[in-house]
Structures are given as structure tokens and as C-alpha cells.
Here is the input.
Amino acid sequence: MTALYIILVVLGTVLVLYLVFIIGPTILSFDKIFGKKSAEPLKGRDISKSYFAPFEQMMRDAAARVEKNYELQRVRTTSYDGLDLYADYIDLKSDKTVAFFHGYSASPLVNFGAHAEYFAERGYNVLLVFQRAHSVSGGEYCTLGIIERHDITSWTDWLDKTPASNVVLYGISMGTSTIAYAAPKIKSEKVKALILDCGYVSPYIQIYRDCVRRRLPGKLILPVLNLMFKRRFKEDLKMNTADSLKNNRIPALFLHGKADETVPYKDSQINYDACASAKKLLLPDGLHHTLSFSTGSDELREEIFEFTEAQFNK
Here is the structure.
């Protein structure tokens, strides 16, 4: 048995193992990662040991109060690629509107029940957007903010047709990245402020972090996953929100709880440092992913609200 034969056998074995344990599972998991998300994001999921568990009922109660106390109108717009995109709209005939963009595999009222209640009580119209490939909105795939960035234009065009002349776009997690990617190309003069809550800097890095948490070989999986993503969507999972924010001109408030174990708060620090517009950074202690507004102090919520009001009053 020659040395060359041994080398070929070893290389062949490595290749087979790579195909079986890396490429195969990655191909099979593509639809699970990017495919259509349920209308009931918490249904069937055991969150008893999650950071979210102590707050689940509080979040559900806030959503229920919004549904009980306000009329939610189902509204629609069309995406650049012909999808029907939906949102629930609370029309208080106000000159001010807050538009909410939820996170990955979430829904508007799960992420924003407390937020919607707070802003509506202060006289804001509220737009609760269902991101593409989530719940009732069209689309087979969600892309963690990359393709979704184009949907921001569809919704700002819709908002331009409403009477309100002051709009704030508020994102959480993937919703933040959606807005951040879109920020330099937002043309609507009604959009006076952005609130960017616990956003990541790129889907590539965030998926890698998830692999580490699950004890999966992210360094082997991600190149394959990104290659598939590029072939399917003609986009790169490494797209960085900081690169977009370098060209942002809309005042932005960055919010990120320091106890966030899903997306490190340093991601918001990176985005804040890169942002070219007027900006503010809030890094409250002890608050978890997507929960800073809902579970933070009254003083924190008031600081967020005052930032928005300041931009509207300029």
C-alpha cells in the first residue's frame, strides 16, 4: 500500500464524513432556518428554562389588553417582489405614528404588546408589521433582515399615504437589522426617528453564535450555508448593519440590555459607533433579549419616548 493510496483513502474518508455530517445536515436545515414561520411563534416550544419564561404571561397579557382596548385594522401593502405584506393598524387619528418590526420567528404583539400599549396611550397611531414569511404575510423565506430591508420602503410608502406627518420606525432583533440595512435608502420625509433594539451586526455572526450554543461546528456549517444562501437569494449572510448605518442620516436611538445572552450588547455598541446620524445609546443593566422596553424601568421607557418626541418637535 503506497503512501499516495493512504493519502487518497484518508482524503476520501474525510470528504464522505464532511458530506454526511456537515453538508447534508446543512442542506436539510436550510428550510428550517429560513423557511416560513408560524402564526403562533411560541406554540409547541418549551420555554420553561428560557430567560423569556418568567415574562411570558406578562407579554401575553399586554397583547391581550391591546386587542381588547383598541381596534386593530388589518392593512396590506405589496413588496418589491410582489408579495402581500400585512400589518395591524391602530388608527387614533394622530399626527404621530410608530411602526414596529418584530424579530425572527416572532410576531408583532408577542414582541410589542407593551410597546403598542405605551405609545397608543400617549396618542400615537400604531402599525404592527408582520414581516415577510411570518404569519399572514406572504413569502416562503425570511432572510434575517437582508431581503426584508426592501420591505421597509413598501411600508414607508404606505405610511406616506396616511395623514400622520411624524413617523418612528421601531425594530427588535431581526426587526432592528431590517431597519438598519434599509436606513440609508429611506426617502420618506415623515420618518423622523429610528429605535434600534438589540440588533445583531450580521446574520452570519448570529447564526454562528447559535451553532456555538447548540454545540454545532459553526465554522464548518456557515460557509456551506452562506453558499446556499447566495445561490438562492443573491445576497450575503455576512452583510453588516454597521456598514449601512455609516450612511444613515435619520436620528437613531440604540437600546440593548446588558444581560442579553442571545445577541451581545456590544453589537449595538458597534452599530452605534458606526451610525452617522444624531444618535443615543442606552445599555440598561440586567435586561434580556427583546425585553428592555417591556421589563425595564419607567424611567427607561420615558427616555425612549422623549427621544422620539424630541425628533418630532424639531
Summary: The radius of gyration is 21 Å. The beta strands are 73-78, 84-90, 96-101, 125-129, 166-172, 191-197, 252-255, 279-282.
